[in-house]
Amino acid sequence: MVLLIIVLQSLFLFVDFTSDQPQAENSSERFAIQKQLEHLKLLEIEKRNAKIYPFNPNYITDHKGEQLGMSLAEIDRLFAFRKTGAFVNSKHQFQQVTKVSDSLLNAISKYFKFPDWVIERNRKNRKALPKYDTKIPSIKNSDELSTFDINLANPIDFQFVDGVNARLAERIVKYRSKLRGFSFESQLYEVFNMPAPLAQKILKTFKIIQQPKIQKRNVNTIAFRELLQIPYIDYALCQKIFDYRDEVAELQEISELKNIIDFPMEKYDRIVLYLNAE
Length: 278
Known about the structure:
Elements: H1 2-14, H2 27-49, H3 62-68, H4 72-83, H5 91-98, H6 102-108, H7 116-128, H8 155-158, H9 166-179, H10 196-203, E1 217-218, H11 224-228, H12 235-248, H13 268-271, E2 275-276
Parallel strand pairs: 1-2
């Protein structure tokens, strides 16, 4: 028994049972499996895309966005944009809002379907533009603008002009809202931190196609606080108007504002957009 144990231990110690030929990797077989997996993945994508029908991207739901391959962050950006009351009117706007990749945009934008009235409005706007300026060096792609009317353009539209970033575009829209619409193109220069050359570039693309409808207030009956809320009227001017109104009892014509001492004549045409005398 002892002799048998010694013999077996010697075999384990001195005999090499491992193969001299290393196991070769079957790279061709691995490559074939990988190609097959890729093929199955493509078939699944095609199968999923085959079920997609034309849709309005403004009304994408969580489920629809996931089906299209959008991330949660991209879907949330679209939801946040829609909460402002704005609409996406082109595939370029959709990408600007959601930040989807070019490859995903190209894959899903072929299913985008915008309302006929949006398409017709864009066509009419493009047709009307040459009346103002046939040279538009600043615009990137006029086919994807929602409008050429400066009073209807949204922040995304303004960013089509080189040099206009998201912050400036928001300031333009905010100031336009304060004015209740641009009545003069020169009012664009009044936007905070608006460089004059950039304003000129914007006005080569956007025009006042439709005048804003501003409800005028009677200067003889308006309250002090309400008058103070009118654009271009500060506290000092508001006080002067009330003092003059007390002096004459009633303004017969709105042009009587010019009789006020130190009245800012350069603002007269803007102030009378909001006031009348009745």
